[in-house]
Amino acid sequence: MLVLSRKVGESIVIGDNIVVSILEIRGDLIRVGIDAPREVKVHRREVFEAIEAANREALTASVSAISDFASSILGLPSKPGKKD
Amino acid sequence: MKAMENDVPVVEMRGGLLGFPEYTQFTLIKMNDEGLVYRLQSIQDEAINFVVVPAASFFPSYAPVVDDEVAARFDLVNGREVLILLVVTLGETFKDSTVNLMAPLLLDPNAQIAEQIIVENANLSVRTPLLAA
Fold first, then answer.
1. In a domain, B3, yes or no
2. Considering only residues 3 to 42 of chain A, which have any Cβ-Cβ distance to chain B shorter than 8 Å?
3. Is B60 close to A79, i.e. CB distance below 8 A?
4. Is the CB of A38 less than 8 angstroms away from the CB of B131?
């Protein structure tokens, strides 16, 4: 891994069009600004990993399980949920 | 947000689902007459299936906040209608099934494009019970 030291207000350029800037340091919290092209997705790592894991769990090979699920929903009112 | 009426034969999933970037072409199949459950199946590999439900049917007050670039990609600023679908993780029973409120799918059924986005709302879970307990 490449390790660089930067001060507040300094930046790092990645490739031709990604710029990572150190905006502020307050205690153990560092605010980082990222300028990247639209097609480059930027996420907090733990969020990205949580969603990847949820997607892997959601992957369903069995079409019959999905059919069963769709049938089981029929006995419920049309707007069964509310919590969010 | 209106309910989706029909299947969407080809959906281009831009970037794929997170963790599955290689699958970008899907077909969306309605699994019951009420349109409460849909199956999202990869056209490239039919063993790749996800269950999705319209957010509006289960979480009527769900109001995902998206960043400006997502809004621009889906032309939301001009009032273009998109569907919000939630990815379901099937449980042993219906009650154990959960949905991912943090990363819904936005689907434009006319343009046949979709994307899994990460919403900016705080405190939404990737494993929210589909039914309130």
1. no
2. 38, 41
3. yes
4. no
Instruction: Name residue, tokens 């969603």.
Output: A51
**Cα distance between residue B74 and residue B97, in whole Å:** 29
> Can you give the residue range of the structural domain that contains B37?
8-129
- Predicted TM-score (pTM) of the model is 0.83
Q: Do A55 and B20 form a contact (C-beta atoms < 8 A)?
A: yes
Q: Name the residue in chain B with its Cα closest to that of A56.
A: B19
pLDDT in tens, A17-33: 999 999 999 999 999 99
Candidates B94, B84, B5, B118; CA nearest to A81 is B94
Give A45→chain B minimum CA distance, Å: 12
B121: in domain: yes
Q: In a 10 Å sphere around its CB, with 0-12 CB exposed, 13-18 middle and 19+ buried, how is residue B46 labelled?
A: exposed
The Cα-based distances of B121 to B64, B100, B118, B124 in angstroms read 6, 13, 9, 7
In chain A, what residues touch B34 (CB-CB under 8 Å)? 73-74, 78
